[in-house]
Hints:
mainly alpha, two-stranded antiparallel ribbon, 4 strands, purine nucleobase transmembrane transporter activity, Permease family-domain-containing protein, transmembrane, membrane, NCS2
Amino acid sequence: MSWLTSINNGVAASPVGYWFRLDGSGHPRSRHGSKFLTEMRAGIITFFAMAYILAVNASIVSDSGGTCVCNSTNPEDPICAIDTDYLLCKNEVRRDLVTGTAAISSLATFFLGLLANMPVGISTGMGLNAYLAYDVVGFHGTGPVPYEVAMTAIFVEGLIFFGLTIFGLRQWLARAIPKSIKLATGAGIGLFLTLIGLTYSQGIGLVQGAVATPLVLAGCPESAMIDGVCPGSHKMRNPTLWLGIFAGGIFTVILTMFRFKGAIIAGILIVSIISWPRGTSVTVFPNTPVGDDDFDFFKRVVWFHPITKILAVQRWDIGEYGAQFGRALITFLYVDILDCTGTLYSMARFANLIDEHTQDFEGSATAYLVDSISISIGALFGTSPVTAFIESGAGISEGGKTGLTAMSAGVCFFISIFFAPIFASIPSWATGCVLILVGSMMMSAVVEINWRYMGDAVPAFLTITIMPFTYSIADGMIAGVCSYIIINTLVWAVETASGGRLKPSNKDLKDPWTWRIPGGLLPGWLTRLCKGKKDFWRPWPEDEADNQSVNDHELNSIGQHQTWAKPGEALPYVRTEIRSAGSKE
């Protein structure tokens, strides 16, 4: 017997092994093939698959300016785009966000593994971070809601999600949204992220706004800009653009195609390492006051950066922002419910943790509760909402089956807190192609949309297109839901008035929809408690039948569709998810 086998057997025979149901622990529902060292390795792989979020999330959310105040007196720079003091403050916010993102990822992932025994990582979701930065708060605070009020909305959203989970309303909300809108939301967010990745602010700078047309080809060095516009003689001549395309884009795609674990973080690191030396045409540390400040922070390498500007900045006097506050809150809640539900179910199925009779997985309610509490804690850290990450499939494909995988990844996120100088110094052209790649993965949802019936197709199309064209996830969702209600209500009215003689073409192909949940709206535990069952946490046989119907519907209609290999097979890295990436994403 090797020493590795001895370690695995020793842990399996301990209380730790019994709690996590390791193979050989003696637990009646042990997870076949789960070994302690395999779980540790799977957790490390999960971390490397998710680590890109530390740089990407900090880079995106810091574009809002955080709590920095723009007091520009320069009429040519009303949003402080070149104001040195504001940019130095923004740098501090970005560093705070690296620490905050790592901290909440560590806490959420660790406790999801400990309490729910799920091999899934949690971090700030891609999509909602962009919605927060560019729609709710706006670039450099130019949006309708201050950063502090936005953090309040996220904090409240986590509490509402907690209540919805406790009382079973999460299932109803996930079901009430038409299938076509759910699928279109993921694809629309993918296009939204792609547009961000193509621009200068958080991307490779391939496109920019213009006077005559909404978008034009760019690719100029920023020093060659004339009144903020790229002249034709300098288009596509920015060296950072080509570095991002080839090293950050094509290289990452090739690694992904060959199923290289950590392909995304590998591409980011290569571009960053090339961009770190000073004095080159692609340096991220120019000889400016801001560049000098960035380089001084980068040289620390290992350093704990405390959160100073965005910690617990919630603002509760929201009266003048009531409508916008509500709009942001509903959007955060809607996307989180779909994202978390779909990702956790797909990961549980990939890890063979789904009960084939009930179509549920053990600890599902606990997993949702951990996610909801983490959203509120993350808001105190100044981050966008967190969600389960589809990148967890990388660790599951390596044999991760228990919460030890998540706990291992959580420890890695904790260690990353002390490398904030590295993650805060990753340039936008290193992460831009990541956003484009994530967007392309999320677009695969369009093949599942029912394009054969216009009552489903048109609302879905509006959802997809309006999100990037208005730079707003909420506007796209509102357009999709409202158009769905109007179109299908009018169709129903015409059919009713004509006595069923007039029917639209292909009506028989319409996606089924109902607001009813088999077995009732209240969750089983609450129904059993009301009926006086002492061990109300244990289901009755009839509850299992109800759960099977409900969860079958969720799996079929949820707005996320992933293609994963069976355990033991190679992992096809294809994903579609509702998030900022992430949470795919």
